[in-house]
Design a protein that fits this description.
With about 140 residues, the protein is an alpha+beta fold. The chain has a single domain (about 5-130), classed as Hypothetical upf0131 protein ytfp, CATH 3.10.490. The protein is about 25% helix and about 40% strand. The protein contains four helices and five strands; from the N terminus they run βαββαββαα. It has helices at about 15-20, 65-70, 110-125, 130-135, and strands spanning about 5-10, 30-40, 45-65, 80-90, 95-100. Strands 1-3-2-4-5 form a five-stranded antiparallel sheet. A hairpin with a 5-residue loop joins strand 4 and strand 5 (about 95-100). The chain is globular, with a radius of gyration of 14 Å. The model has no long low-confidence stretch (mean pLDDT about 95).
Amino acid sequence: MVTTTESVFFYGLFMDESILASKGVRPRNSVIGFVDGFSLHIGKRATLLPEENSRAYGVLMEIAHDDVEMLYAEESVADYVAEPVIATLPDGSRVSAVSYNLPAAKLSGTNPEYALALLELAARLEFPESYLEHIRNF
């Protein structure tokens, strides 16, 4: 049986490989990167929304297609939809990927605990200070 994988750009707590491992997901080829033209927003969960002149940081991972389906079948993220993105990697190369985003109309509420956990993860991943400040605003 051939297992298909997809390049997924994670920008929320799924960037944490230990969280993925706790769900039985084993990503490969993880690399930090960013996507231009999107801005991070945090309601009850995080999402990327299109926004000119913005940049969102995250981690690009190769994930088995079945694992991606299992992750986004969870009730808390079931409304997320796949969007194509171009991730820029530290070496300047650009890679086509998929980002799972919550539609703007479904973004609601606040979640200070989620924002704090994301801030701690982003700091551990050494994202730029300006991006950490953006997360702190939530």
